[in-house]
Write a structure and sequence with these properties.
about 140 residues; alpha+beta; six-stranded mixed sheet; about 25% strand; binds zinc ion
Length: about 140
């Protein structure tokens, strides 16, 4: 079982539980996922987190030979959470402002939708998705 954070067009957030990623995709494609509050099927997946590194910071770690992918992701998350500023849902706007120099350059992390991440990437803004390890492991 996996769970995803979802949001409808009215910005109601809810969690969807699915058998696996394939069934999530299939239900998404057939508009079978409805918002529990307003019943809208115009639903998108929220990324649990993402970050932008505006300035070079010291390396996370180098001796990673025996680490698993999950451990590495966990470390990356912890690093980001300790060193970057959490801007929550403001992430896309602030990331853009930092990139274009209208906000103070700093590392930030927060939430954005797949659509917003795509737009940022298309503008050349170096955003990095942060997988939610706890959920992946469940
Ligand atoms: Zn809704």
């Amino acid at each position: 079982m996996i769970s995803f954070d979802l949001e409808c067009e009215k910005e109601h957030r809810f969690e969807g539980i699915f058998k696996d990623y394939q069934s999530f995709k299939a239900q998404m494609r057939q508009n079978l996922i409805a918002c529990p509050l307003c019943n809208s099927t115009n639903v998108k997946r929220l990324f649990s987190g993402c970050s932008i590194q505006a300035r070079p910071v010291s390396k996370i770690s180098k001796d990673g030979s025996s680490r698993t992918f999950f451990e590495l992701v966990k470390e990356l998350r912890a690093f980001v959470e300790n060193n970057f500023e959490n801007v929550g849902r403001e992430f896309p706007e602030i990331a853009r402002a930092i990139y274009y120099g209208t906000e103070e350059a700093r590392g930030i992390y927060g939430e954005s939708s797949l659509e917003e991440m795509k737009e940022l990437a298309e503008e050349g803004i170096p955003v990095l998705p942060l997988p939610d390890v706890e959920k992946l492991e469940n």
